[in-house]
Amino acid sequence: MQLPLYYNEEEEWNRTLLLYDSVLREINTKLEILNNEFKQTHQYNPIEHITSRIKSPESIARKIRKKNLELTVENIVKYVNDVAGVRIICSFTSDIYKIASAISNQDDVTVLRVKDYIATPKPNGYTSYHMIVSIPIFLTNDVIDTKVEIQIRTIAMDFWASLEHKIYYKFEGKAPAGIKDELKECANIISFLDEKMLSINESVKHYHEDFNGGVAMSSDT
Length: 221
Ligand code: 0O2
What we know:
The chain has six helices and five strands. It is an alpha+beta fold. It has a domain at 7-156: Beta Polymerase, domain 2.
């Protein structure tokens, strides 16, 4: 589907899409570099995988309608923060905050908004860390700050969100209370699993430190 924009806005929209495509490339490169650096320094990579997308025209139009706005390029750029979106799937909850701070600390990244649904989950149980950032895109004669939404979550959080999205979609947002309760219960189990996995990982790290320390000591003596 094409966005039903005014005919004279087509060229502007194509230029805007080029910016969104560019910002996804920029953020993906940044993440790849961070992951490689982490792998080299700590012998493990915090990022399991990354997906990115440009929001579908239907979804952009829906969001603009929900905000009671006219469908213009100006309104999309100003009010739809997640036209460009990247989702980072991490191993452990602690990785989420490490990655978020490594991104925020970069000089060319401006953090516009943070929604920490891990510290404060949504009432339905949804957890994830969301950031809206802007990154400058260098064109021939212009530098244009372009927004991208970054969602960071663990494998378990992603598992829940993907399935909840499918189930909820089937009910067109009007899932019966019983289903909602069961989904919430699953979210609690997911959160327990994440905590458990993190704690196992911490124990393994201590075990390694002790073991390596022990080896070093015994080779010293
Ligand atoms: P899609 O298809 O993922 O793009 P805003 O207009 O930015 O102020 P918004 O969009 O509600 O407000 O922002 P928020 O809260 O940061 O959440 C936006 C995105 O987070 C959603 O995008 C989903 O991807 C995800 N999300 C938020 N809540 C839920 C939830 O309860 N369940 C699931 N599965 N995902 C959620 P979109 O635009 O809905 O869809």
